[in-house]
Amino acid sequence: MSVSSNSPAYYRIKLQGHLDSNWSDWFEGMIISYEGANTIMTGQLADQAALHGVLIRIRDLNLKLLSVEGLEADQEKKNSLSPGNNDT
After folding, report:
1. Distance separating alpha carbons of residues 71 and 4, to the nearest angstrom
2. What is the pLDDT of residue 6?
C-alpha cells in the first residue's frame, strides 16, 4: 500500500486482551471489536501523526501491541462489517 504520510489512511491495530469499546473516542474514533482474546481497532486516521498519537496512547496505557496493518479503503469496510467482529 503506498500512502503519503500526510493523507488519510485506514489501519487495523491488534492488541492483546480486551479493551472496552468506551475507549473508541480516545483512539480517534476507531472501531473497537474483538477477535478471540484480542482487541481489534480499525478505522481511518488523518495522517501518520495521528497514527503515532494512537500508538503513543497504546504505550501510555501499557497495552501490548500485537500488530499494525495498513488497509485499503475497501478492505477496511469488509473488516468492520465481517461477522464475529462485534463489541461483545
Report:
1. 14
2. 76
